[in-house]
Write a structure and sequence with these properties.
By secondary structure, the protein is an alpha+beta fold. The protein has 6 helices and 6 strands; from the N terminus they run βααββαβααββα. The protein has a 3-stranded antiparallel sheet. It has a 3-stranded antiparallel sheet with strand order 4-6-5. It is elongated.
Length: 153
């Protein structure tokens, strides 16, 4: 099976009432011949016309719709948190960060003490930059995908 990653963003620009040569679909999506064979096997209808295979855009769209929906849902979940952080200007107090992360301030103190979050002092008052919090969360997302906790006995 091919490891080709399809670029489905180009499909959104297609006129769904038209037919396109398979070579154009391959160019737009980055699919190779093996992927096209898989699509054909999965029920995508190819039509021969003027010595080339043509595909109805609506058929391709209907086949790819579940992929679009899954991708859109995943993207919305991750970008929702990022946009809330990006909307915050400047610096935050410990209380604001703890409330945002839904953790206690003691846990937040441990994160700072362990060096996982960097602090900026304004006079004697500690503050955390929202951009620093965003970096921390991105790091947590990538490490949580690879690390698995052992179940408690």
């Amino acid at each position: 099976m091919s490891e080709t990653k399809l670029d489905t963003s180009g499909l959104r620009k297609l006129d769904l009432n038209c037919i396109y040569p398979s070579s154009e679909i391959m160019r737009i999506t980055g699919a190779d011949k093996e992927v096209m064979k898989l699509l054909k096997r999965d029920g995508l209808e190819f039509r021969w016309l003027v010595g080339d295979q043509w595909i109805k855009a609506i058929d391709l769209w209907n086949m790819m719709k579940p992929v679009f929906n899954k991708y859109a849902k995943q993207k919305a979940e991750t970008s929702e948190l990022d946009s809330t952080i990006a909307d915050q200007p400047g610096l935050a107090t410990y209380a604001e960060v703890a409330e945002f992360l839904k953790i206690g301030q003691t846990t937040l103190y441990h994160l700072v003490k362990d060096g996982q979050l960097k602090v900026v002092y304004i006079g004697a008052r500690p503050r955390i930059e929202w951009s620093e919090l965003e970096k921390y969360l991105k790091k947590q997302r990538t490490s949580s995908k690879t690390a698995r906790r052992k179940p408690k006995k």
